[in-house]
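Run log, item B.
One chain of 91 residues. Sequence copied directly from the ordering sheet:
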Amino acid sequence: MSAGCLLELTMTFGNEPIKVDLLVNKNLEVLNSQLIGTYCKLDRRYMEAALCLKRIFKSMDPDKNNRLNSFSVYLLLLAFMINDNYLPHLL
């Protein structure tokens, strides 16, 4: 599997800066992103909890090298919610 490449951008939506990471040739990350998107559409609680956790982790330490990235937080939350039967297992 190719290592791929990453392009980091910051966009502004209203007054809120939004970080966007573009990945190329990262097959596993694409599949994980699709899985996260599916669960966001399936149950709004997942999306709301993920955004809340993202803010909590970011507020604990603004240095991204000292904390989990958002993608990892989303996957950990997904595993927890599936394991505790808040969300169905789709795979």
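Observations after the first pass:
- DSSP finds three helices and two strands in the chain.
- The helical segments are 27-42, 44-60, 70-83.
Flagged for discussion on Thursday.
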